[in-house]
Design brief:
This protein is of the alpha/beta class. It has nine helices and ten strands. The protein has helices spanning 43-51, 73-79, 96-101, 114-120, 122-126, 137-149, 167-182, 194-199, 223-231; strands spanning 5-14, 17-27, 32-36, 56-63, 66-67, 81-84, 155-159, 186-190, 203-208, 211-217. It starts with a strand and ends with a helix.
Length: 233
């Protein structure tokens, strides 16, 4: 059986500027991979390449053995890849419920429905008719996660779930994250909080200026080794 997600020697560019250099990784079904690194390390760019939003120029990307090269983002989403983007990117003219329903555009069948999302985030049921951008930052993040789940993905790409949120809200988000993992989804997580990222993942990969400096199991990695990979010491 092939891994659910497989990247081999992937290069990604922004115009003429190379942002990701020869990255290889594997994510098995049901596994969580933490992508860590300082700002500008190439983490978001790598997520966008997997989702088909920023094409990889070299290397191979496969999802469940299926080549992703040249596929539009909509096609990759239909295969079962969903993204929770940094900044949430909700539709300001739509209500909470309408934003959630946008996740159904891929028409993938599965267990995640409005009722299941409201069970995961009960506060959203109470606010389902409100404009999504009238919610707090944490509640907007819940909408973004719920919208991605409504795609019924096999792989969830999460970019900075805790960015700009209060600690208590972050705890609530990550409690839900544990329940999502229990459903068997594979996850690639970008998170600035390295300790949290390692605690909720199976494997980790550290990027520095677009290059892998450390990869392996998340747990029991010495802090000194992570710091050296993170800062290039």
């Amino acid at each position: 059986m092939p891994p659910l997600l497989e990247l081999d020697a992937v290069d990604v560019f922004h115009g003429d500027l190379q942002a990701v250099f020869g990255v290889s990784l594997r994510v098995e079904a049901g596994q969580a991979l933490a992508l860590i690194g300082a700002n500008g390390a190439g983490k978001t760019t790598l997520l966008r390449a997997i989702a088909g939003l920023t094409p990889a120029r070299r290397g191979t990307l496969r999802f469940d053995g299926y080549p992703l090269a040249g596929l539009r983002a909509e096609r990759i989403a239909a295969l079962g890849v969903a993204m929770v983007p940094e900044g949430r990117l909700l539709f300001p003219s739509l209500s909470v419920e309408e934003n959630l329903q946008m996740g159904q555009l891929t028409r993938r069948a599965g267990a995640w429905t409005l009722a299941r999302v409201y069970e995961l985030f009960p506060v959203l049921r109470e606010m389902r008719q409100r404009p999504a951008t009238r919610l707090s930052g944490g509640q907007q993040q819940m909408v973004a996660i719920g919208r991605a789940l409504m795609c019924n993905p096999r792989l969830l790409l999460c970019d900075e779930l805790s960015l700009g949120l209060a600690p208590l809200v972050v705890e609530e988000i990550y409690k839900a994250f544990a329940r999502i993992r229990a459903e068997g989804l594979a996850i690639v997580l970008v998170e600035q909080d390295v300790a949290r990222a390692c605690a909720v993942s199976d494997t980790m990969l550290c990027l520095l200026k677009g290059r892998v400096t450390l990869a392996g199991p998340s747990h029991h990695v010495p802090r000194e080794r992570i710091a050296a990979a993170y800062f290039g010491e």
